[in-house]
Amino acid sequence: MNPFPHRYLPAIPLLVAIFGLGLNVGAETAPSTATTILPEVVVTPSAQTDFSLGTSTYNLSRSQIETIAQGSNSTFNQVLLRAPGVSQDSVGQVHFREEDPYYQYYINGILLPRTINGFGQDVDTRFVDSVSLKVGALPAQYAWGNYGIISVQAKTGASLQGDEVSYYGGSYDTSHVGISSGRSSGNTDYYFNGSYLQDSLGIENPTSSARAIHDNTDQYKAFGYVSQKLTDTSSLIFIFSGSHAKFQIPNNPDQTSVLEFGEDFPVANSSLLNETQTEQSYYGVAAYKQTIGDLSFQIAQVNRYSSVLFNPDENGDLYFNGVASRVFRDIMTNGVQGDFTYQAGDAHTIRGGLLFDTEATRDHNTVAVFAADDVDPDSGQIIADEPPFTIEDDHFKRGYDSTLYLQDEWKISDRLTLNFGGRFDQVDAYVHENQLSPRISAVYQASGNTAFHAGYARYFIPPPLENVSPTSVSEFDDTTNAADQDTDDPVKCERSSYFDAGVIHNFSPEFTVGLDGYYKRATNQIDDGQFGAANITSPYNYAKATIYGGEVSATYTKGGFSAYGNFAAAQTWATDIISSEFEFDSDELAYIATHNVHLDQTQFYTSSAGASYTWRQTTVHADVIYGSGMRDGFANTGTLPAYHPVNLGLEYRFKFSDSGEATLRFDVTNVFDQSYELNDGTGIGVGAPRFGARRGLYAGISSAF
Questions:
Q1: How far apart are CA 305 and CA 283, in angstroms?
Q2: In which band, very low, low, confident or very high, does the pLDDT at 181 lie, cut at 50, 70 and 90?
Q3: b/e map of 585-595 (b: 16 or more CB within 10 Å)?
């Protein structure tokens, strides 16, 4: 088929960062007090052309976030789903243009190191003031633009100038408490946010029932920001964040075992299993920025620690799967970043930067298995006559990433802007690879209402060290955890060519429409899957892949009424898995080697739409998310049914004193109680069935004073 057409390390290294300020790559440098290293983000509800980047950018303001389902009480991935070409997956993942969730986060212009994929969210929506999403053929300052750039501007003390407390609760035993405090006085600005969430739908339900079994979660999060102005043109910034979350793994009743047991082994009930997963993530940032004449620069140190601990139900997991794995994985990253901007006359804006970081990751796995010497000739089941035994599977790896980039934004005329440059990336970890990547893009302002953009980017994406599974495959030969084959080629760096073009047109001051198309050809395409009981995805490579599609977005705002709509169509093809082959069944692996298959996250049609109306102190809003269904079945040859949950909400704001204001909020999610499946447990690298949440009723109050 033609594919075209010891355990917890301190992770708030602020003192170290003060003395270790360095330089960084690809960071979107925050505005200084005199000039801006990157153009100031214009917050609109629609896609727009960013003249310095030559690509489409989608922005959401604080007020717009509040008009989606559950507002600031929603998970951050729900915010992202309101952007064009963003589709939802299970366990809190979203996909930009059908790519896996290896997108990059910037917080106040600082690039965050990656964290181990789990159920939790990198960003707490409550501290977000605005968010800018970028994807496509981005300039040299961004490394992984095809996977997605998420630039978050946090709230500041100046925006709050006081304190705020909130409570939100309702269906699924939800109880969400938050507290914020911020002030701006003289040369100092600070903001702090803390929250606690408890509910009984921590992970998607593996069944279509209204309530999941064994699905409680407790999540604690904190975020802080301090800015100290040193002079009129320089300042020092500190950012810190911490999260600790515990999840019960929901149970799927009426499961049967793949083994046959002797009389002494206790029979398990799949609805009574007790698996849990605990996730932690902490980061600390210290940054210095200054403007000297036409030169602006920012230097920063960023440290991050994250860990995942999966505890099995040993008896039950052995009974149903023949293997019970206790999995602990963590990673510590220390990096220095830096960017500069030099205004070389009226026509040229030169940007450059570099990054260096080191990562250290550990895996400590204790795996209980049975010997697999006997197979029942009639049923094909393994006969487990002997008691289980334990295999320790431990690994440690240190990796290094280094990058530098240089680009020129050349304003050729009042209508035409060209951005060209390149970046050099090198990785030394499980693989040792590098690449020089050229980038070029152009923006043409055809009129005051119409702008065209087009670009080309060469991308180089290392496999995420924190998710690479370095299992000792041969250690499990002749056990119930044995692979079909022992082939385990290392995960390689993805290399791709990316083309993107689009247009933005304002039909009127109230009505804007954007259209964008893209095409990607890749070698060593990175994809990932869940191959064990722990929800830690592991990457692998396809030899070749093609991804292409188009997006349209529209917004209308007039008076108290605003509305938006997004629609995207996309297609993916990939062939021949060439790394981590032991994770796959041999027949599926052989099929993929000779056929083009869809990536498991492929959803041909994705759409979102919403509207809100504000009258005096009251706002009513509604939105809907539509997906045509992701892939399932052998080698992703099937498609799940479409889904379209509708959400409604209402907010009422009132003053209770001269300086105090409160907001009452009511939400109904999935109004029509649609039962829909995000994954059915089949497909390439899909670990378990997951259903979207059923109808929920929620109410909350927040008070600022």
A1: 6
A2: very high
A3: eeebbeebeee
Residue-wise pLDDT tens digits, 237-261: 999 999 999 999 999 999 988 788 8
Could you read off the pLDDT of 46-78 as tens digits, one per residue? 456 565 677 778 888 888 999 999 999 999 999
- CA pair distance 317, 310, nearest whole angstrom: 12
CB 671 within 8 A of CB 647: yes
d(CA 317, CA 325): 8
Closest CA to 500 of 487, 489, 514: 514
Please tell me whether residue 76 adopts helix, strand or coil conformation.
Answer: helix
Reading phi first (left if > 0) and then psi (alpha if -120 to 50, else beta), residue 322 is in left
- Mean of all residue pLDDT scores within the chain: 88
Backbone angles phi, psi at 368, to 5 degrees: -95, 130
Beta strands at 128-134 and 174-185: parallel, antiparallel or unpaired: unpaired
Which residues does residue 61 pair with via DSSP β-bridges, in sequence order?
130
Residue 118 has pLDDT above 90, yes or no: no
The Cα 15–Cα 280 span in angstroms is 21
| CA-wise closest residue to 92 among 227, 229, 254, 219 | 219
Q: Name which of 633, 625, 567, 636 is nearest 599 in CA terms.
A: 636
539 touches 531 (CB < 8 A): no
399 phi and psi angles, rounded to 5 deg:
-130, 160
